[in-house]
Structures are given as C-alpha cells and as structure tokens.
C-alpha cells in the first residue's frame, strides 16, 4: 500500500517530504483525507496524529509518523537502506528545519503571502524581518558556493527542505533576491528543472482541503 502524507499540498514541509520521496522513486500522495476520510484541521483526530496539531504526518501501513525529519529518515530506511548517515547533511537539515524555516517562512513568508496573512505591526518590524531574510540568504549562498547542491555534487535532503522556501520567496516584490544572489537563483532553477521539481514545485492554491 502506498504511503500517504497528511497535510495540504501548499505546505513547504509537505512539499519537502514529497520532493525527498520522489527523488527516491516514490510518488507520495498528500491531502487531508487519508483513505478518503477527511480529517478536520486541529480536530481530536488530527491532534491524535500530531500532538501539536501540525503537519506533515506520514501514514505508512499501521505506522503514523509525525515531524518532517522523522518522516524523511523513515523514508530513507524504507527506500534507500544502503545509505549511510552524512553529518553535514544532518547538520544542514536541522538548521533548515529550525533557523532557516523560522526566518524565511514563519517570520516572513507566511506573514506576507500565507493562507492567513498577518501584516507587520510597524515598518520597523517588517524591516527587521527582511534583514533576517537577507542575512539568511547570504549564509545559504556561502554554503552553496559553486557546488551543484547545498551539500555537494548530489541532491540530498537539505535541497528538498530548501527548495520550497526559495520557490515561494521568488515572486515576492520586496525581496528581489534573484538579482542579489544569482548563485541561489541558478540553484533554484536547477531544482525546478529536475523531474521531482517539475512535479512538486508547481503553482498551488493556499487552501486547506
């Protein structure tokens, strides 16, 4: 039975898990209705799957696995058991799911272009958030350097985690980051050109379904 990812298709984390799975040959369906049974957002059923009422949650047979990193590592064991651990990839995966996600997604992207925008209280608040975005992109640009991917010559989990963030940031007019960081822009283009990117990094509506 094909695993199912509980979470809306527009979620950056859902997109990341699906990219990671597809790079290993698994097309992972997603949505809010596993086995055709709709689960209301933050309902008792949802909270039983994820104690904080978040996404994604993986349904794999009898298993229910929440949190992005745990899901991706489970998929690695299931799909690519021959893979060894990689400390650099693990470190960047952790940083992307914490600091980078906080600065790019939680404190900026969702506030200006998410399904429930929350405008900044003052221009100063917005400028601080933009400064954090710019500083974070500078760090990512240094890490990328002239490599093909974030941690070397091959696609890995950190790329799956970063791709949806950059994809959503691109059209926001206040940033114009492709001009400032051309290596990151070329990197995003490479990710979009991959079969996984063509399947996952596509326009989607920001509605819970």
TrEMBL record:
Gene3D superfamilies: 1.20.1050.10, Glutaredoxin
InterPro entries on file: Glutathione-S-Trfase_C-like, Glutathione-S-Trfase_C_sf, Glutathione_S-Trfase, Glutathione_S-Trfase_N, Thioredoxin-like_sf
Entry superkingdom: Bacteria
GST N-terminal domain location: 1-83
Domain GST C-terminal intervals: 86-209
Alphabetical list of PROSITE patterns matching this protein: GST_CTER, GST_NTER
Protein name, entry field: Glutathione S-transferase
Originating organism: Pseudomonas oryzihabitans
């Amino acid at each position: 039975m094909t695993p199912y990812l509980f979470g809306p298709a527009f979620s950056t984390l859902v997109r990341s898990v699906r990219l990671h799975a597809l790079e290993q040959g698994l097309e992972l369906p997603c949505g809010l209705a596993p086995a055709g049974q709709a689960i209301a957002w933050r309902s008792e059923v949802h909270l039983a799957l994820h104690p904080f009422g978040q996404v994604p949650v993986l349904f794999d047979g009898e298993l229910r696995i929440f949190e992005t990193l745990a899901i991706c590592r489970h998929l690695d064991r299931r799909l690519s058991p021959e893979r060894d651990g990689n400390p650099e990839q693990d470190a960047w995966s952790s940083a992307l799911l914490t600091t980078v996600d906080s600065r790019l997604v939680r404190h900026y992207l969702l506030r200006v272009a998410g399904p429930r925008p929350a405008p900044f209280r003052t221009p100063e608040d917005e400028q601080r958030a933009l400064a954090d975005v710019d500083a974070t992109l500078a760090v990512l640009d240094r890490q990328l350097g002239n490599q093909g991917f974030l941690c070397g010559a091959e696609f890995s989990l950190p790329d799956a985690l970063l791709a949806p963030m950059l994809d959503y940031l691109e059209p926001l007019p206040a940033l114009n980051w492709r001009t400032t960081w051309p290596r990151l822009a070329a990197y995003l283009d490479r990710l979009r050109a991959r079969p996984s990117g063509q399947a996952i990094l596509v326009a989607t509506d920001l509605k819970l379904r």
